[in-house]
């Protein structure tokens, strides 16, 4: 996934990973079933595989807390199948190989009925073979680059067609400024590269000339944006409305936006559409100069619905902190967890094969309106919102897709995958089915 | 007095009567501001901006400030703090209506508002305001504003504003599709824009140059103007890049000067150097918070107050570290490396526990924000300030080393510790002060970096490698070498970046430094002489 939020400079990473893996050895603990009055019997174990130390801890700790909240809530409602739920929390310490080890432990030692976890794409890729080998169930809550469809993973975050494509559609529209020139700026790793490849092909299909697309990559933790911002400025002065699509890694965004402001580029001149900037990231920024800059998500804390208000209140009560923000991946876990509860109830068992089959077609209301449905390719239907940054650090929604967008595992805008679909329902039951040749490419799902 | 008031009243009544017939249409424009369709809102803004309704200006301004609200019954209100005014009439509302919702803005609306506001300000009494409005209109060159611009041009007296307005008029004319017999007018406009130069003019002219609808003469003229402007922009681009290189170099220099003392002069491999910078940045934040809480009037200069505070705090911490840890490890580089690395982790975790793991927002004062245009260059003020600051810090450090007893003693101790001790210099004291000086300098770097980078517990890690690279590349123990290396690496990076990209530029610089160090292991300016420890 995209938001390798905080400070993933490569050199820093090795150091931190080393230090924190030591801390992680003893880092496993179990949350006692929350005062399970009604439910009794053997607890159903739910694995939580989020980094609680290391560089990703900033983002992932929040998701661990959200899961604990959801599990406690379910136990209050009487557990599942009359049995209590038990959270098994492990700490993979932002260390990708350790993710695979911890996943193996959750599945074979703790016998977790479902696992909720991972943030970065590389951590997901690291645990994927383990989940396929041991036939586990993983709920992955973060928007990502797509091009993957495993039978054992449910992708509750956005696929590119549920974030990147609608965002560009907005920029092309009259309300979004009718952009004719695009600078695709990103951090140099798999998510931005894949996303930009998809976007470049999509823009060309929309009639944008090759010369009107500029692609630029920067290292992790880039802090000197002078040259790139002045390149964007020059690129934007060709007489056509220009927009920036940013897949810049969370932490490098602050100096990027500062430089934009200092060089006098405002959101009305050249708007920046970001895919990795959410409420959590804005919490550390002075947002006054950013007003009007854009972000595309499937959830915003500011969306005013009764379900969202109740969720935010529950979150504040649970964390005992009225300032904690909610964000998109938290909603994804909320949806994924409730879907899993429904599927287990429907299957009457936690048997992995039966639950995986029962998941398809399960429906769960979103916090922001509409109903998410688990599709045969293990992605969800989602609403897509475009928000503009406000001076209070929240987003104001300026546009939403007219209908829910079904997630596509494989992008039709990448030549190699344009005929592929994922469909885990019978009779196809294949993660990479070629609709042109009517064959399943087989076990290689990524 | 009394008569005057009566006259005014009469005039107002007469105006009101004049306005009445159009009132229906304008009422709709007010209501349309709350429309869910942004297109309708934009149209309403144009209508209001062109109208002579006395409430239009205040309403549009309130919309821009997000203090315009819509009630469930569709009425529009302006709310400033506790007072609620009905936008249409300007009358205070009898009671605060229930369920007021702010009218939302997006970039399209902001653009329209800025245009409307600029149109009104073209007739403002102050020339500076008029010039700013003209600049705003120039960037937008909205054909709908042509009449407004021409009217302003007819009454404008100030020469600077007139020139700018002529350019605005040219840009606005060229922004429209060509009329059949307008070639002469458009040629004149092209010449005006060619004289103005700059990226905006280039943008407009470049569009003309490849537009089929344009007369050949206009296209030709535009083509030539574009190539002239391009040449101009390229020349300024070189200067601009040189400034970026200098600026990047100055950040490297600031980060490395402290290390040039602790590692370069004292020979301590101090892995916690970056954390000293991080603490300097946190001190900046704390000073800002303290000043905001106590003397808000001084907030703009909080950053200046933070400079000595950060130096003292980090310097004192450095002395404590030297006395408590480093002094037991002199002459054992590997152990020093591990111990200071451990220390850096402890400091990071301590800051994380105290201030939380997320970024904190250090404010940039207004006088450090934005940029000044120098010819075709934009000099960003925060970078310029850091450049000057780096020069001052280096100059100050040179003075301390060369002109003070402490500097003399430091140089003596580093050149020959035993001899210096025999001469009566208290070497432990000098060691502690020197390490404190290095840490204090790192704190100063932290103050500077807080203006351009994230302030989080991990701040130091992104600078430690670069700092070591600068010191080693420049020649360990030589401040001039540190300066030369910082500027060389900064310039090199910024020269390479536009052509091969930021990622490759970083790799290329590393490879070049490694190759250079292979041939010259002691860096660019090695310290020579017998006194140097082998």
Automatic annotation (TrEMBL), chain A:
Q: What is the name attached to this protein's record? A: Urea ABC transporter substrate-binding protein
PROSITE patterns given in the database record: TAT
Recorded hits in Pfam families, A to Z, give: Peripla_BP_5
Checking Gene3D superfamilies in the record gives: 3.40.50.2300
Question: What CDD domains does its record include?
Answer: PBP1_FmdD-like
From TrEMBL, chain B:
| UniProt membrane topology term | Multi-pass membrane protein
Q: Which residues cross the membrane?
A: 248-269, 301-321, 333-351, 384-401, 432-452, 464-488, 500-518
| Family from the record | Belongs to the binding-protein-dependent transport system permease family. LivHM subfamily.
Q: Where is the signal peptide?
A: 1-24
Q: Which UniProt keywords apply?
A: Amino-acid transport, Cell membrane, Membrane, Signal, Transmembrane, Transmembrane helix, Transport
Entry protein name = Urea ABC transporter permease subunit UrtB
Please verify whether the record's keywords include Signal: yes
Q: Name one Pfam family in it.
A: BPD_transp_2
Domain of life of the native organism: Bacteria
What compartments host this protein?
Cell membrane
Family matches, as CDD domains: TM_PBP1_LivH_like
Q: What is its main location?
A: membrane
């Amino acid at each position: 996934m995209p938001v390798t939020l905080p400070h993933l400079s490569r050199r820093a990473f090795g150091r931190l990973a080393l230090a924190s893996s030591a801390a992680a050895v003893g880092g496993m603990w179990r949350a006692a079933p929350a005062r399970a009055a009604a439910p009794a019997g053997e607890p159903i174990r739910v694995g939580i595989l989020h980094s609680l130390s290391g560089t990703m801890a900033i983002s992932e700790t929040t998701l661990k807390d959200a899961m604990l909240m959801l599990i406690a809530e379910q136990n209050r409602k009487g557990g599942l199948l009359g049995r209590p739920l038990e959270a098994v929390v492990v700490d993979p310490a932002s260390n990708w190989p350790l993710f695979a080890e911890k996943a193996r432990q959750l599945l074979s030692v703790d016998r977790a009925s479902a696992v909720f976890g991972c943030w970065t794409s590389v951590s997901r890729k690291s645990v994927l073979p383990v989940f396929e080998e041991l036939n586990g169930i993983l709920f992955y809550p973060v928007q990502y680059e797509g091009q993957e469809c495993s039978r054992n993973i449910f992708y509750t975050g956005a696929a590119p067609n549920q974030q990147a494509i609608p965002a560009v559609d907005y920029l092309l529209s009259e309300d979004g400024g009718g952009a004719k020139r695009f600078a695709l700026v990103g951090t140099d790793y798999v998510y931005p590269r894949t996303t930009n490849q998809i976007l470049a092909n999509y823009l060309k299909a929309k009639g944008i000339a090759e010369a009107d697309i500029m692609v630029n990559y920067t290292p992790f933790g880039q802090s000197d944006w002078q040259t790139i911002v002045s390149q964007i400025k020059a690129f934007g002065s060709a007489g056509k409305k220009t927009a920036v699509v940013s897949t810049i890694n969370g932490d490098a965004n602050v100096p990027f936006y500062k430089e934009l402001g200092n060089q006098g580029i405002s959101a009305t001149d050249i708007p920046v559409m970001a895919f990795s900037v959410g409420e959590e990231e804005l919490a550390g920024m002075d947002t006054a100069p950013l007003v009007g800059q854009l972000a595309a998500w499937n959830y915003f804390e500011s969306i005013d619905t009764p379900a969202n208000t109740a969720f935010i209140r529950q979150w504040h009560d649970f964390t005992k902190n009225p300032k904690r923000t909610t964000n998109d991946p938290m909603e994804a876990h909320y949806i994924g967890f409730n879907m899993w509860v429904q599927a287990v109830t429907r299957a009457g068992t936690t048997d992995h094969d039966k639950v995986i089959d029962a998941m398809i077609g399960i429906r769960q209301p979103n916090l922001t309106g509409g109903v998410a449905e688990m599709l045969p390719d293990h992605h969800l239907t989602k609403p897509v919102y475009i928000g503009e940054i406000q001076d209070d650090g929240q987003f104001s929604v300026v546009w939403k897709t007219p209908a829910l967008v079904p997630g596509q595992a494989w992008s039709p805008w990448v030549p190699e995958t344009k005929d592929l679909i994922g469909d885990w329902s019978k009779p196809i039951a294949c993660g990479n089915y070629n609709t042109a040749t009517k064959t399943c490419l087989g076990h290689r799902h990524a | 007095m009394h008569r005057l008031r009566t006259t005014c009243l009469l005039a107002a009544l007469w105006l009101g009567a004049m306005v009445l017939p159009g009132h229906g249409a304008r009422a709709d424009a007010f209501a349309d501001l709350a429309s869910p369709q942004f297109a309708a809102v934009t149209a309403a803004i144009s209508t209001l901006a062109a109208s002579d309704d006395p409430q239009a200006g205040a309403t549009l301004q309130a919309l821009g400030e997000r203090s315009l609200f819509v009630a469930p019954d569709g009425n529009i209100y302006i709310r400033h703090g506790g007072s609620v005014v009905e936008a249409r009439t300007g009358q205070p509302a009898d009671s605060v209506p229930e369920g007021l919702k702010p009218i939302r803005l997006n970039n399209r609306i902001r653009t329209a508002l800025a245009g409307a506001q600029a149109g009104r300000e073209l007739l403002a009494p102050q020339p500076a305001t008029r010039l700013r409005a003209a600049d705003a209109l120039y960037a937008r060159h909205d054909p709908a504003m042509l009449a407004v611009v021409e009217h302003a041009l007819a009454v404008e007296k100030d020469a600077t504003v007139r020139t700018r307005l002529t350019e605005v008029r040219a840009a606005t004319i060229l922004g429209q599709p060509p009329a059949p017999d307008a070639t002469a007018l458009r040629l004149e406009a092209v010449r005006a824009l060619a004289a103005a130069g700059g990226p905006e003019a280039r943008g407009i002219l470049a569009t003309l140059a490849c537009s089929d609808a344009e007369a050949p003469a206009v296209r030709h003229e535009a083509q030539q103007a574009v190539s002239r402007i391009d040449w101009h922009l390229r020349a300024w681009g070189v200067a601009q890049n040189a400034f970026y290189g200098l600026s990047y170099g100055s950040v490297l220099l600031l980060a490395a000067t402290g290390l040039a003392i602790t590692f370069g002069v004292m020979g301590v491999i101090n892995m916690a150097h970056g954390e000293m910078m991080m603490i300097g940045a946190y001190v900046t934040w704390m000073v800002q918070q303290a000043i905001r809480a106590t003397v808000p009037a001084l907030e703009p200069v909080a950053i200046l107050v933070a400079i000595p505070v950060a130096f003292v705090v980090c310097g004192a911490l450095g002395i404590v570290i030297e006395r408590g840890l480093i002094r037991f490890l002199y002459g054992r580089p590997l152990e020093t490396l591990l111990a200071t690395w451990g220390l850096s982790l402890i400091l990071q975790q301590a800051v994380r526990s105290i201030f939380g793991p997320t970024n904190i927002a250090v404010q940039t004062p207004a006088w450090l924000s934005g940029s000044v245009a120098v010819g075709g260059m934009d000099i960003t003020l925060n970078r310029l300030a850091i450049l000057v600051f780096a020069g001052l810090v280096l100059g100050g450090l040179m003075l301390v080393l060369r002109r003070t007893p402490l500097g003399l003693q430091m140089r003596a101790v580093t050149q020959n510790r035993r001899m210096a001790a025999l001469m009566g210099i208290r070497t432990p004291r000098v060691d502690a002060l020197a390490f404190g000086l290095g840490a204090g300098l790192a704190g100063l770097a932290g103050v500077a970096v807080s203006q351009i980078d994230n302030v989080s517990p991990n701040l130091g890690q992104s600078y430690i490698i670069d700092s070591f690279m600068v010191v080693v590349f420049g020649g360990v123990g030589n401040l001039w070498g540190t300066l030369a290396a910082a500027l060389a690496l900064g310039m090199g990076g910024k020269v390479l970046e536009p052509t091969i990209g930021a990622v490759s530029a970083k790799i290329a610089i590393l490879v070049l430094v490694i190759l250079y160090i292979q041939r010259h292991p002691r860096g660019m300016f090695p310290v020579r002489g017998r006194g140097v420890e082998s």
